[in-house]
Amino acid sequence: MSFISGKPIQNRYSNLFDEQEKSLFKREFSPEAQAVFNAGRELWKYYHTSISSTSGEVRVGASVNASLYDIREYFQGRNEKGKMNNKSNDETYNELIENLRIELKILAKKIEPKVYEYGFLME
Fold first, then answer.
1. d(C-alpha 113, C-alpha 37), whole Å
2. Is residue 6 one of the residues assigned to a domain?
3. Nearest in space to 76 (alpha carbons), one of 65, 64, 86
4. What is the pLDDT of residues 82-92, one digit of tens each?
5. What residues make up the domain containing 85?
């Protein structure tokens, strides 16, 4: 989180061995990236309110350190062959995950030209 919030880090253009030279390099995120953060945060909040039972104990199959994959598995479950189901019976979850997917597609469209410009992929 300190990387994202712009906490003091070693300046990438300075002498790597000079411990005294630290700088604040504030990261700025596009509105599209911020929308992905916000959609993910809403899904994360919903998951954490869902995993807690009324007694405050975490339900079986839930993790307080869950990844997106873990969250999807928790809500969508698995079929008898062990494959993750495509949808969940939880409509709120379905709305939140769909919103996250939409925001990710918007961000992907924005960064797609840079993938070729910076040489990660060749046309």
1. 21
2. no
3. 86
4. 999 999 999 99
5. 31-117
